[in-house]
Structure formats: structure tokens, C-alpha cells
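Chain A, query sequence.
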Amino acid sequence: MNKSELINAIAEKGQLTKADAKRALEAAIEAVTESLAKDDKVTLVGFGTFSVAKKEERTGINPRTKESIVIPARKAIKFKAGSELVDKIK
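Chain A, predicted structure.
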């Protein structure tokens, strides 16, 4: 499912216009993004939890040259599915 298909599904299930569904989806994505940017967790009960994990600097190997390289520290976004979501896709 891509973004336009998701907008259509939201419009249909929520009895909204496509324009309203698009604004709602974009507002939700923006709110989640802003929250994660502040290192906050976003928990949607029954769906799952978005969180930010800090990855430490580490040493890796360039597969082309076999040289040792330093992989810089970074933040990564994690998603843990909620039990209701997991049960629905079994």
C-alpha cells in the first residue's frame, strides 16, 4: 500500500473526503516526526510503539577494499508492533 492508497482507505473507513483524509494523515505523520525528533516515544495502543535508538560509533570493514572504517554514531528509528497488530496478521 502506498500513501495515496492509504489516504483512500482512511477516507473510506473514516467517511471523510480524500482531502480531509490526506490532511489528517499528513498531520499524524508530522506529529510523530516531531515527537521522535525530540527523542520522545510514540505509543499507539494496539498498533505499536515508535522510538529512537542511539547507535554508538563502531568499526566496520569496507567490503570493496577490506579496509577498516569508522561508522559514525547515529540515531535510528525503531518500531515495535503491538500485540493486537501481531494477532491480526497471524
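DSSP finds three helices and five strands in the chain. The mean pLDDT is 96.
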